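We store sequence with structure; for instance:
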Amino acid sequence: MDDLVALLLSGLAKDEKKARAAESGDDSEHVLQHSPARVLRDVEAKRRIVTEYVEALRVQTGFRETDSEESRREALELVCRALVTPYIDEIASPGA
């Protein structure tokens, strides 16, 4: 799996876990900072983008891309690179 995709999915899983804990009342500090429902919607939306990017990567490796497929993949990669920004600290200190 692409490193960008792996980092994004890992970060999203951590966000989801925190939001679910807050939703069940296990993390009141998080609830004060974020609405669990909003965080979960945000995680799901970002996962859909990552899924589209992974599919575009499959098309790229499966056969010769058309110009529109290449443009789509490049656009999705740009979006995924922007989405990974909040998780940059995890690159510097894995396991945090």
Summary: The chain has one domain: 3-89.
